[in-house]
Amino acid sequence: MLAIIGGSGLTRLSTLAVAHREVVRTPYGEPSSALVYGQIAGRDVVFLARHGHGHAIPPHKVNYRANLWALKNRGVESVLAVASVGAISDQYSPGDLVLPHQLVDYTHGREHTFFDGGDRKVVHVDFTQPYSAQLRERCMQAAVSAGILIHDRGIYAAVSGPRLETAAEIDRMARDGATLVGMTGMPEAALARELGVAYAAIAVVVNSAAGRGESAQEISMEKIVMVLESAMDKVRSLIDQVVQQ
Ligand code: HPA
Dihedrals φ, ψ of 177, to 5°? Predict the structure, then answer.
């Protein structure tokens, strides 16, 4: 089964015919929200709102382990995550969709692994390619079918937030090769890998990153909200198509 993890602007899927909801208990505490089971175009899908249904959980307080564990435990094999980002590279504009192919993790202080030692033996997972090639390909094909433009490459810089970055921090990330910046991509992707769940992300560009483009002096929150609202229709259409691929 495919799961969609919705981020800011996507706290529910309008095309999802809801069958039932389930609050899952996990060894890691409570997931961000109930799992919402349903169908899109006759295909089973489960939806999880990363920031809770009322959008009350900030990126650094999301219980990423509980979310991924709950999905895996209920039979999810693939996770398509939706996350808003700032554009570091000027190849992307606000409103664009990007399928990142790599990431750099700058987060700190988050519970970031299931392999925490204790009574378990030490485990290291391969993370050379953090996103599933198959799921990315499925998204690319879906975008073609739906006539939606999506950038097929991006290097996602994961930051802790909730504050936005300084211009110098963005310059540093650019020197590291990152082209996008967001607050929720990690440890989500790594936890999915640890559980053997295929993971890909649709990054929704909602602003130019700090110090770049129209954010040269400051980042406008009003604009972010406007861009997010208008881009979500595109994201919903893309998800509809991905489910049917
Ligand atoms: N920085 C970090 N996270 C973000 C941004 C940003 O500029 N925009 C949306 N999420």
Answer: 100, -5
